[in-house]
TrEMBL record:
SMART domains: HTH_XRE
SUPFAM superfamilies found in the cross-reference section: lambda repressor-like DNA-binding domains
Chain ranges of the HTH cro/C1-type domain: 7-60
Molecular function terms from GO: DNA binding
Organism from which the protein derives: Pseudomonas lactucae
Source superkingdom: Bacteria
Full protein name: Helix-turn-helix transcriptional regulator
Length: 111
């Protein structure tokens, strides 16, 4: 995925159209379109304004999402989540069934 495609994805994620994002970031709609098509690259002022609107700029630039800090989230849990996300959909669904079954067994055992 290109930087322009990630920029478009982030714009859509926060629910604004090209005109609104362009205006809020100090560029024209044509410039915004050029960024999203990969014909031009945004400058730091644009990226700073986009970050203030809630776009994940690390993701836009590198393709790696900004890590979300969750209180009590351990390194082991982070590793599990990252590996889970890398699995095909069918394997993720199998894991859901396994975890649900294990939870059911452990919950019923405590009653």
């Amino acid at each position: 995925m290109t930087m322009g495609e990630r920029l478009k994805e982030e714009r859509q994620r926060i629910g604004v159209n090209q005109t609104v994002l362009a205006e809020k970031c100090g560029v024209t709609k044509n410039t915004q379109l050029a960024y999203e098509k990969g014909e031009r690259s945004p400058d730091t002022a644009y990226l700073a304004n986009a970050a203030l609107l809630g776009l994940d700029i690390l993701y836009v630039v590198t393709g790696d999402a900004t890590p979300q800090v969750v209180e009590g989230y351990t390194a082991v849990e982070d590793k599990l989540v990252n590996r889970y996300r890398a699995l095909p959909q069918a394997d993720q669904e199998a894991i859901h069934r396994i975890v649900d079954a294990m939870w059911e067994l452990s919950s019923k055992g405590r009653e």
